[in-house]
Design brief:
The structure holds two protein chains of two kinds. Chain A is mostly helical. Chain A has one domain: Helix Hairpins, CATH 1.10.287. Helix content of chain A is 68%, strand content 0%. The mean pLDDT of chain A is 83. Chain B has a domain at 275-484. The longest helix of chain B is centred in the middle third of the chain and has 32 residues, at 152-183. In chain B, helix 3 runs antiparallel to helix 4 (108-124), helix 3 (77-97) runs antiparallel to helix 10 (239-245) and helix 10 (239-245) runs antiparallel to helix 14 (324-354). Chain B has 21 helices and two strands. Helices cover 71% and strands 2% of the residues of chain B. Chain B has helices at residues 7-19, 27-52, 77-97, 108-124, 128-146, 152-183, 188-195, 203-221, 230-236, 239-245, 248-262, 276-296, 300-321, 324-354, 371-386, 392-403, 407-435, 449-459, 461-467, 469-484, 487-493, and strands at 58-61, 72-75. The model of chain B has no long low-confidence stretch (mean pLDDT 90). In chain B, strands 1-2 form a two-stranded antiparallel ribbon. The chains are: A mainly alpha, B mainly alpha. Chain A binds chain B through residues 20, 25, 28, 32, 35-36, 38-39, 42-43, 46-48, 67-68, 71, 74-75, 78, 81-82, 85-86, 89-90, 92-93, 96-97, 102-104, and chain B through 129, 133, 136, 140, 143, 147, 150-152, 155-156, 158-160, 162-163, 166-167, 169-170, 173-174, 176-178, 180-181, 184, 186. Chain A: Pfam families: Oxidored_q2. Chain A: It is a multi-pass membrane protein. Chain A: The chain crosses the membrane at residues 6-21, 28-50, 70-91. Chain A: Keywords: Cell membrane, Membrane, Transmembrane, Transmembrane helix.
Amino acid sequence: MESLYAITTGVLTACGLYLTLRGRTFPVVVGLTLLSYAVNLFLFSMGGLTTDGAAIVDGAGHYADPLPQALVLTAIVIGFAMTAFVVILAMRARSEVGNDHVDGRSHDHDEERSR
Amino acid sequence: MMHLIVLPIVLPLVAGIVLLYRRQGGTRLKRLVGVGSTALLVLVGVALVERAGSGEVAYYALGDWQPPFGIVLVLDRLSALMVLLTAVLALGAVVFACDGDDERGSNFHGLFQWQLMGINGAFLTGDLFNLFVFFEVLLLASYALLLHGGGKSRIQAGVHYVVLNLAGSALFLIAVGVLYGATGTLNMADMASRLAELPAERAGLVTAGGLMLLVVFGLKAAMLPLYFWLPRTYAAAPAPVAALFAIMTKVGIYAILRVYSLIFGEAAGPLANLEQAWVWWLSLATLVAAGVGVLAARDLRLLVAYLVLVSVGTLLAGIGMGSPRAVSALLYYLIHTTLITGGLFLLAELIGQQRGKAGTRLVRGRPLQQGGWLAGLFFLGAVSVAGLPPLSGALGKALLLAAAEGGQRLWLWPILLLTGLCALIALSRAGSTLFWRSQGEPAGERLTWRKWFGVTWLLAASPLLVALAGPVSEYTEATADQLAAPQALIDALLPSAGGAP
């Protein structure tokens, strides 16, 4: 369980990071989304993984740490809002600047010339 | 007056919601609410400073959940000072905006209030996760304010700013997660008391978490490898927003001061002063880069943006020195630089409006309609920001230079003074181009009292800070002493600390 969880989080982070470093806005947005999924998973496990634990109800017995669950909910909400915003921003940038490069200038031109 | 501490957050929140009521129209009423709420915030700030000035650490437990379990707002001298500073800066910016800048897009005043809410919340919170939440609140508002009015350069700067800050937020959450995993708490005071008895095998985790936080705060404060977003963003933002952004880098500085003095203070044993060496060297490098940037800037707004960077480097150097004397000097300099750079952003807008097509670019243009007054204000701001006597910049820098000890002097003195020289050269070149190298008929319209008020309100801080240097530096010294002894804060929040973990 632990290793599966750790590998999933790691792979998500790596993919997110790679995509965030791309030059066009769409991969960057997808990358940021993956990064926020990875962070949410990481936050969820931050108090240590509890398997087969119930939610905290009576306060007695074996239960999962409730704090990360509350934090993850907050982080998910904020992450959703941010993703929506960045998608709109990317579309505005595409229509105002005329291309979808994060720097606002198209590099295809130079590449074709250098060939 | 028990609820005074929560007012800096609730007041802008409510004002922002009221302002949402109508998206278009109702301009007069909106301006009244926006300015009224900001003016009230100044009064609240004064009351908070008065209360914190006695040295007592007060906290406000939201929903009456006692720390360390509930969410708390903590008021000490530092947070009270920052809240007052924010309100004073915001009042100048919001009055300036009432002259038409607020009508270039929708919901300016509402977003402005929410930005204030986020900033005040970040200054007051005593909880690491809530620091993240308030960072997000202020960032979300700042994204929208940056794009206020639209335009190509703003959108381009906005894409970089938003993407960088989203990545920073992800890193912030990871750091908070690591620290929670290692210590089992998010309350900063509680975390500090638990670090004292940290098992040795977790020290590595805490170090990693603490330094990741430094990266996040460094991004907000614009420390050297992480500052490249700042000049373009600040130069592209609408003037009143850019003026308010002058406090945003200081939020990063505040967070570094707060987290590393409280959590990683002397009591943290081997983890104490984790950040100091990093901050010290990076601050000097930031100063050098900012000095070069100031000289290279070909636009007045870009020039002021690089001056913000100079101030960031200077402030970080104060943190890097670490002694209470240096912290006191940096707090004095922080008040000065926030208000003056904010005022200079507003002034740059006025100069640009009066020069017709040339705008704020440093090229030959038309003479200014009210050039005399503007030149006088520019002179005042330039003398102050470059750190020449007799204004507050010189005083702040002298305090910082005097606080350097031993080997630190060897590095700080030449770099800080040379950066000041760079600023002086660039500003005198800019001033002579703007006001003297002109031809043709005067362009632009006469300016209204609102714009004059915004600029004068902020720039007047400089002579005032000199006149009131005694009481202000007494307050900053007391603040630095309070920061150097975090145990008092921990005891106030957790009366039973030291017992069961």
